[in-house]
Amino acid sequence: MSEGKFFSKKDLLKPRNMLLMYSRGAFPMADETGEIEWYLPETRTVIPLDTFNVPRSLKKFLAQSDFEFRFDEKTIEVIKNCARREPTWISDELIEAYSALQKLGHLHSVEVYQTNNLVGGLYGVTYRSAFFGESMFSLVPQASKCALVKLIERLNEKGFVLLDVQYQTEHLKMFGAKEISFDEYSNLLIESHGKDAVFN
Fold first, then answer.
1. Whole-angstrom Cα distance, residue 191 to residue 177?
2. 118/128 Cα distance (integer angstroms)
3. Closest to 22 measured CA to CA, from 144, 177, 166, 167
4. Taking a C-beta distance cutoff of 8 angstroms, is the pair 178, 45 a contact?
5. How is domain 42-193 classified at the CATH fold level?
6. Among residues 69, 55, 165, which one has the least CA distance to residue 110?
7. Cβ pair 162, 152 in contact under 8 A
8. Distance of alpha carbon 92 from alpha carbon 89, whole angstroms
9. Is 158 helix (H, G, I), strand (E, B) or coil?
10. What is the per-residue pLDDT across 80-101, written as a single tens digit (0 to 9) for each?
């Protein structure tokens, strides 16, 4: 990417440079050695906020569950839980970079609690009215799916334009996630840049 001509890899993990990269549609991932690279796929996956789907069985589960949902209380703990898998693309260096981004108010989480214990959640980065979803985890059945429902509700409530989920999965497909070209994605990015939204 052209940014590499101007910034070193270390520089790109500085919070304001990270925001610049996210604003252009790039996202970071660490490889098996811990080396962090920035990615800009030609095909992107988004969940349209105006036409998202919640499966009927999940709606029923949510109505009967004892889950409690909170926002931004234990964001770094959510990230560390997301990183507890093999292999993981969330390195310690990347967690440090996210911590710096959190101080600028651009790192957010949806947390799922059961009997006051954190049992699931997700996190992402915000820029203007775009939410860049990064990862989710679940220690009990349905927790991460319920977190995603609450995320979508929050983004709609706060007037966000874009929910970027990077890559398509069966898990995301049930919520109406769709793959789009980078040109379509760029148009959504531009639209999201034109409106400010506050997550929490």
1. 19
2. 28
3. 166
4. yes
5. Aminopeptidase (3.40.630)
6. 69
7. no
8. 10
9. helix
10. 999 998 889 999 999 999 999 9
Bridge partners of 137?
Answer: 121
> Which SS3 state, helix, strand or coil, does residue 133 take?
strand
Would you state the pLDDT for residue 11? 85
Say if residue 48 is preceded by a cis peptide, omega within 30 of 0.
no
User: pLDDT tens for residues 172-188?
Assistant: 999 999 999 999 999 99
Residue 180: other Cβ atoms inside 10 A? 15
The values of phi and psi at residue 182, to 5°, are: -65, -30
What residues contact 5, with CB distance under 8 A and at least 6 apart? none
User: Max CA-CA distance within the chain?
Assistant: 53
- For 70, the token pair is 């909170």
Helix, strand, or coil here: 81? Answer: helix
| Domain residue spans of the chain | 42-193
In angstroms, what is the C-alpha Rg of the chain? 16
- How many other CB atoms are found less than 10 A from the CB of residue 67? 19
Q: Is the pLDDT confidence value at 8 over 70?
A: no
